[in-house]
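Researcher: Batch entry, complex prediction.
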Amino acid sequence: MVTSVHQLDDGAWVSVNDSREVNVSDLWQLARSDFCGCEQADFLAEGFVEVSAAAGRVEARIAGRCIACGEEGVTDWLELGRADPESGEFRSVVPESVHVPDRRRRLATPE
Amino acid sequence: MPSKVEGWKSEAYGNEVREHILEFAEEGWDAIPEDEHDAWFERFKWWGLYHQRKGQESYFMMRIGTPNGVLEPGQLEVVADVADEYARGPVDNPEFGGAVCDWTTRQSIQLHWIKLEDIPDIWEELEAVGLSTQQACGDSWRNIVGCPVAGKDTEEFIDAWPVAEKLNERFKGNEDHTNLPRKWKVSVTGCSEGCGQGDINDLAFEPAVKEIAGEEVKGFNVRVGGGLARKEPRFARSIDVFCTPDEVGDVAGACSTLFREHGDREDRFNARIKFLVDEWGTEKFRRVLQEEFVDFDLRSAGEDLRDEYTYNAGDGEHGDHVGVHEQPDGNYYVGLSVLVGRMGADDTRELARLADEYGSGEVRITQRQNLIVTDVDSDRLDAFLDEPLLEDYSPDPHPFMRGSIACTGTEYCSLSIVETKNRQVRYARWLKENVEVPAGVEDFHIHLSGCTASCAQPQIADISLRGMKTRKDGEPVEAFDIGLGGGLGENPQFADWVEMRVAADEVPGYVENLLAVYEQRRRDGESFREFIARHEEDDLNGLAEPEETSYEDPYMHNTKMTWYPYADEDDMSASPAPTNGQGEPLPSDD
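Model: Structure tokens for the complex:
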């Protein structure tokens, strides 16, 4: 099945196959990112700006702030999790573990 | 390419959604196809229904739009009855109990824990007395706001209430204006004090006078493109247009149609009209309005009254509508302080009884989350003021209780980062008990918003609090960015954000330290806002220190990770939702 993904309620959360899966207010650990000068950004997700899904891999660009240095902005693409291509079941990544944003351009639908 | 929400709206939106809601309610929660949840919940908003956050599936927030905040005789009692019967969740709130009414900063009413199955009965009860949830949320004309004592104010320049009423009648349910690119917030102000807060609305009608055919005519100047959300605050900008009260509807309709045709439907983050005004400028906006959307000559702006505006201007003259005030007819209106705008159903019902006994039965909601009982006979004023209920909802409250506003927060809202209302109650109580009020300060505005959506209007307060996170001893805790010196008046000013990521339990200590600095260093007669304004931004940073005090905060953990922050078993997995019409958990597919 095609993975349906969108952000809703002013970017408050990401829906995967009509199920609320990822919320704002989590802290994400970002490594090797250009987001700020911190070796590892301690990033508060305040709003999902863009979302995309390809081959079950759900990604988003997130607006927020590094709570260590205070830098504000929008991240590059971050993997939020994967949806099973057959059942549609979504498995989220763990925000508190370390993530590496991906600058690659990909098709996305602004909401 | 139009956004996904636009796609859903093009399939069904507006008035027609009501029939679908009634069908779903008849059949129950499971009748909404799982793969259509997001589309339907987006459409439900148009009828004032907002699906509550994760962990509270199948429960809705219901918003009732009351134009200009006016609750006519008999309506408040019905609101109390509806809240009592239908707005009870699985767990009570520890500060407010179960079944509460929230009075909002847009003069509306919000009820929580509404079940889909109960909506037809609720609508029947509300509509029987002329109340409606239509267009209370969604991409359309929202509840029209204004000076809450329009028609009953000694400072009135022109009575804005009939103007707001006509706009409401014309644009609620109007198919031409059903589906706008985004929300459309309108304010009509008739007083000379600026109480309508037009500056922060998409479309504002503000009192003005203009000479027409040799005669001075009272009417309104028009401003567009105000708003506070998403760290992109804007004050509404003049488009150099004056209209008479009879012309307001046509001009408003033309502006709304311009927004419908030219607003951004591809990117919802860029859709509010403030961004179109940014892009076009006011001259182009006026030109397009004239050339494409009206068939009469727009007049140039009249002489406004903005240099008389005192509302929320920081000088203490007219910070709100709390207190006892004489009306032009010799009766009185009594503004009652409702801390964070939340009132239990029993208290709401008692207030409805008092309004009926001592006044005309009318009650009005202010943009500071307070209530006003109007038309109190002068002979009965003292007896009304002696009523026990007014000990809790005082017309003469302590300044910290009086000035506290808070949004919904993580209790129900998907977007909020932090807990808000219960925390603001605790802040206000602690400040009242522990902090000396600087001499002469009767009204001190602290607005607490859980996120950048700014529903508590934090940017126009003496002290602005916006939800954040920080780490304390390595652990993530709820926190706030702190802004200072915002307000309205002749020269409106957004707060400067000066202290970032202050742990929530250190905010009261910061306020205490800040007010001590103000008391020590202020010049003669200098208001807090003036004191802040004469400091450079760099000096404001560090003006006072955040500090732990005797204040205790039970909500420091990540309240968003709970299904309900005040439940004994608050883990998401302990949620009873979704439930059926009796509130019993529905079987899970897992």
